[in-house]
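Hi W.,

Here's what went into the run:
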Amino acid sequence: MDLMEKNLELVEIQKLEGHTDRVWSVAWNPVSSHADGVSPILASCSGDNTVRIWEQSSLSRSWTCKTVLEETHTRTVRSCAWSPSGELLATASFDGTTGIWKNYGSEFECVATLEGHENEVKSVSWNASGSYLATCSRDKSVWIWEGLEGNEYDCAAVLSEHTQDVKMVQWHPTMDVLFSCSYDDTIKVWWSQGDDGEFECVQTLGESNNGHSSTVWAISFNAAGDKMVTCSDDRTLKIWGTDIARMQSGEEYVPWTHLCTLSGYHDRTIYSAHWSRDDIIASGAGDDAIRLFVDSKDDSVDGPSYNLLLKKNKAHDNDVNCVQWSRSEGDQLLASASDDGMVKIWQVATKP
Amino acid sequence: MVSGLINENPIIYPKKERRLRTDSSNTDEFTPEPIDQLEIFDHIRDIKDPEHPNTLEDLRVVTEDSVEVDDDNSYVRVTFTPTMEHCSMATIIGLCVRVKLLRSLPARYKIDIRVAPGSHATEDAVNKQLNDKERVAAALENPNLVEMVDECLLPSAE
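Here's what came out:
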């Protein structure tokens, strides 16, 4: 199915109001979707120091705020991430702590607080099995945490090779390889040899390897895990790739290489990029717009190239800080978070 | 602050006369006036320098021409000139300008702040910090910094 041939648009399904300050991030619960017989659940986090949990009713199909996680973080909650099982929600805050919340049906309880970073925690990410958690901070470090019995977490590594504020961490979708991106304009890859190896920085993607020329804000992988997209203050999206089969079979690390740069599409900083399961890349930027890109499928000796599928102007009344595709197959729901204090749910649909 | 000022003897420029606005062409009270350079300059000219009892206008840190505005596209850029090349107050001044504009301009406005090219030793580093909204947001959650900014934004008791 060639998406470029269909006349597509991004339709606003619902606007979720409630936060009293900018919304920084949204995260879809991985195990909930109507297909599973469970209502889709979305978490959003904000400059109002709270996290809101939104649920879609299977009857009315409308979204409501199920609960507000408050009185724990004392400053902005910058990002949140669900564990792969969907039972836990990790929240990263400017107060320097990372909260771990357990879902007890109608209520959430903060079961652990991870401390250690010297200042604002910017991002949190679970690995594919849920055994590791990674966090990063303005203190320039990336921490890896291991979950133990009884809601205990142990610090497994403190990785200090970035030279500036680390904006986001993201585990690879299938392998225990960690990626981080920073105000120092680079993306770093962290890998540990074998089962007992220490995590170390095995690659730095900077300007010298066709990397970004300003702060890198986000990283997102395709479903197969052989490609990733990064977005930056330099107003470009970059696509990177690796030989995933070789990496998964061998003992050695296989480097990532630059495949393609999408420039000239964005007028302001790009804060977020997310790769959907059906290969659509969404971007959220400081010009209040959401853009969707797809592989042009033009076989070229220079590598893949991407086309702008559509641009949604004024998706929000202010900067779009985060875009996230829902995990469910065929749903093509997109959630967005903005400085205007709103969360919006969108659907990709064919124009009538 | 008694001694240890970064700039002990700043140049204070003579005060420019304030031009009165006499635009009588728009008599429709419902049509908003386009925001122009002078209006934005009016918002920032009286910001106090963090170290001296003078305004940013007095010290020529900002001038009317340091404001570039495109109202149709809701965009403004302010280029300020710190009094000294190694002024460590540059980020504070930039932050004050940003906060004043955030509080004064409609939410649709995109604001860029930068130091005048060639006017500061670590110009790129200062510009990067001033335009990283996550860093600005975190800074503004620091009560000490907010107090300092609010002091600079207080109207003078002249």
